[in-house]
């Protein structure tokens, strides 16, 4: 029976024979099929198909090409041994059984919804429209070229929107305003000038107990219409605005249906127990006084309007951006009584935590039942924005990997705030003010040594302690690890451990297990570099002297100067080197040690040992010259 063939256009153009999807060929061939599926009676002439695929400028062989497409489709679209695509009287005709095309089934469900609505059953009508909406699989005719597909896409999208507006109107009418509010928020973002959608959102917000948000929606569209089109809102929108202002009792929300309402995107109006997800604070957090004061003022200031503050922290590996973010969040807990959320966005090597999963955790933290969390990322984001709006919520997003990862996680409510940490600045995250966290100054390093190893011990050997901290490049994680080594060896003097540390940082491999704690953040960030940038990171560390130039790197790596400069600027963005002048860069000694260890592993021990000698203060500095041929030979030897 021919009903065994099914067709879809509410998304990519697809066809199935039973459960088996059929191969429909190239995008142009699918355009021919789409034209036949959507034309009245499934019929079209060759010229109409040519026009559908190419418009006014068809290729010379268009007629023969269309016939080839039709022939291929005829071979594929077969039911019960009979081709469904035939030709009569100059027409190609495709036979499609009733209900076998998704757009026809969609239209049938919409018609059923309107019929039961006229009979007074609004809840059933809304459910029929919800079933119709579930048939869509993205943009209609997705990937299909040609002017006919463009026209049909616009028509189908409008049909989809009208059905969505009907469904959302019914949802509000029967008391499902919370679910409607989440979806309407997303739709209004996509179509900010649509007064019908804006009116529905205002009504949903009002019925959810948020009249101020409803009023804000009116002011937003009034400003948009005036600034962009020179128009005022229409009469229906103005009337609703006046009703909201006077709390018109006719706008009151009806009771939501108890059992018939599906839990698709419902959310609680209040949360009995606000979430407190921050990791434990660092009890001996040290330094950063000026930066802490700046962050506290920027994030914790009282505000009822405007955008939510968001601050991003970045810096070299081990500088303590996560510790700083968590510490400042703990200081601000009392200013965000509605909740503090935390998400670590670092996945495994080369992986990112899915923002949809994080949104799911946020929604559940605010009382949304797991079954009520929407599947779609954008619907989750819309519901999250609705829940956060008006609440005082602090969000900490740690180890952010990309702008796309956090775009939907940052709340927009003016009473919320966000702290992000990332390996580098992410300009794609709108509204974030970035701060580069520096290494400790000498006094901060000494303060941490005192807190961990003991004040008396450091005071007794203050000069050695200063050298000890300097050998750690004043990088907080390195200073802490070194201080804990001091604490574990009370019989050793600070000077003795400082000497051992200076010997250790000259070695191609670490001599002590706690070096892993220092190397871990360096390794993670190194793994994120692309291979060419990683090689430049290693090679640049082999140049003698405090600084390295782009010309040095070009000579070491055998690259054109502009390419060497590009790679070094990548390392600047990753906080592996610091720019000190035009095309001139500098490593912290700890970073240089790590880079030369990597060079030893990748390019051969001979190069590394020669270069590591130059780090020791007792060895006179000498110029390290590497011929390109020698470098290439060593690289080949290592890869072998």
From TrEMBL:
Q: Which residues bind DNA?
A: 1-96
Q: Which UniProt keywords apply?
A: DNA-binding, Transcription, Transcription regulation
Q: Which residues cross the membrane?
A: none
Query: Which Gene3D superfamilies does the record cross-reference, listed alphabetically?
Result: P-loop containing nucleotide triphosphate hydrolases, Tetratricopeptide repeat domain, Winged helix-like DNA-binding domain superfamily/Winged helix DNA-binding domain
GO annotation terms (biological process) = phosphorelay signal transduction system; regulation of DNA-templated transcription
PROSITE patterns recorded: OMPR_PHOB
State one Pfam family annotation: Trans_reg_C
**Is Chloroplast included in the keywords of this UniProt record?**
no
Where the record annotates domain OmpR/PhoB-type, the positions are 1-96
A GO molecular-function descriptor: DNA binding
| Family the entry assigns | Belongs to the AfsR/DnrI/RedD regulatory family.
Q: Please give the PANTHER family that the UniProt record associates with this protein.
A: TRANSCRIPTIONAL REGULATOR REDD, TRANSCRIPTIONAL REGULATOR REDD-RELATED
Q: What is this protein called?
A: OmpR/PhoB-type domain-containing protein
State the species of origin. Answer: Planotetraspora thailandica
Q: What is the lineage of its organism?
A: Bacteria, Bacillati, Actinomycetota, Actinomycetes, Streptosporangiales
């Amino acid at each position: 029976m021919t009903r065994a063939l099914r067709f879809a256009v509410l998304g990519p153009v697809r066809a199935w024979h039973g459960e088996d999807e059929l191969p429909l060929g190239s995008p142009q061939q699918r355009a021919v099929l789409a034209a036949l599926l959507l034309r009245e009676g499934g019929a079209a002439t060759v010229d109409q198909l040519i026009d559908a695929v190419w418009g006014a400028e068809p290729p010379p062989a268009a007629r023969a090409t269309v016939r080839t497409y039709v022939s291929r489709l005829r071979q594929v679209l077969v039911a019960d041994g009979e081709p469904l695509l035939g030709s009569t009287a100059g027409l190609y005709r495709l036979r499609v059984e009733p209900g076998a095309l998704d757009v026809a089934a969609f239209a049938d469900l919409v018609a059923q919804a309107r019929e039961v609505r006229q009979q007074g059953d609004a809840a059933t009508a809304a459910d029929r429209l919800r079933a119709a909406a579930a048939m869509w699989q993205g943009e209609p005719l997705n990937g299909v070229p040609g002017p006919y597909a463009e026209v049909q896409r616009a028509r189908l999208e409008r049909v989809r929107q009208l059905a969505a507006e009907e469904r959302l109107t019914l949802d509000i009418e029967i008391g499902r305003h919370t679910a409607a509010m989440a979806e309407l928020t997303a739709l209004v973002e996509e179509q900010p000038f649509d007064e019908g959608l804006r009116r529905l959102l205002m009504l949903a917000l009002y019925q959810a107990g948020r009249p101020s948000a409803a009023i804000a929606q009116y002011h937003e569209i009034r400003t948009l219409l005036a600034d962009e089109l020179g128009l005022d809102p229409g009469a229906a929108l103005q009337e609703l605005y006046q009703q909201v202002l006077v709390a018109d009792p006719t706008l009151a929300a009806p009771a939501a249906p108890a059992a018939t309402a599906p839990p698709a995107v419902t959310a609680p109006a209040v949360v009995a127990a606000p979430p407190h997800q921050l990791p434990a604070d660092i009890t001996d957090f040290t330094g950063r006084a000026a930066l802490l004061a700046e962050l506290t003022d920027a994030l914790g200031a009282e505000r009822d309007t405007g955008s939510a503050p968001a601050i991003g922290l970045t810096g070299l590996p081990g500088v303590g951006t996560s510790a700083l973010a968590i510490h400042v969040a703990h200081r601000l807990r009392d200013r965000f009584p509605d909740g503090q959320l935390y998400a670590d966005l670092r996945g495994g090597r080369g992986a990112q935590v899915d923002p949809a999963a994080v949104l799911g955790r946020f929604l559940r933290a605010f009382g949304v039942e797991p079954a009520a969390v929407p599947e779609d990322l954008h619907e989750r984001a819309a519901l999250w924005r609705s829940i956060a709006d008006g609440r005082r919520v602090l969000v900490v997003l740690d180890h952010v990997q990309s702008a796309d990862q956090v775009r939907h996680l940052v709340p927009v409510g003016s009473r919320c705030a966000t702290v992000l940490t990332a390996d580098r600045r992410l300009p794609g995250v709108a509204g974030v003010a970035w701060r580069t966290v520096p290494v400790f100054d000498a006094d901060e390093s000494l303060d941490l040594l005192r807190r961990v190893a003991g004040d008396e011990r450091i005071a007794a050997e203050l000069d050695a302690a200063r050298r000890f901290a300097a050998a750690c490049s004043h990088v907080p994680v390195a200073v802490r690890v070194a201080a804990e080594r001091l604490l574990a060896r009370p019989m050793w003097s600070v000077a003795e451990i400082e000497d051992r540390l200076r010997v250790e940082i000259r070695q191609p491999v670490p001599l002590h297990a706690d070096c892993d704690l220092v190397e871990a953040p360096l390794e993670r960030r190194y793994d994120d570099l692309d291979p060419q940038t990683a090689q430049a990171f290693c090679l640049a560390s082999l140049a003698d002297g405090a600084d390295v130039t782009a010309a040095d790197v070009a000579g070491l790596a055998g690259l054109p100067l502009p390419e060497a400069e590009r790679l070094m600027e990548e390392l600047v963005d990753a906080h592996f080197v610091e720019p000190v002048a035009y095309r001139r860069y500098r490593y912290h000694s700890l970073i240089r040690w790590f880079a030369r260890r990597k060079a030893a592993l990748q390019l051969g021990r001979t190069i590394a040992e020669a270069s590591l000698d130059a780090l020791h203060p007792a060895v006179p500095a000498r110029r390290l010259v590497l011929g390109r041929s020698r470098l290439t030979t060593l690289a080949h030897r290592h890869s072998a």
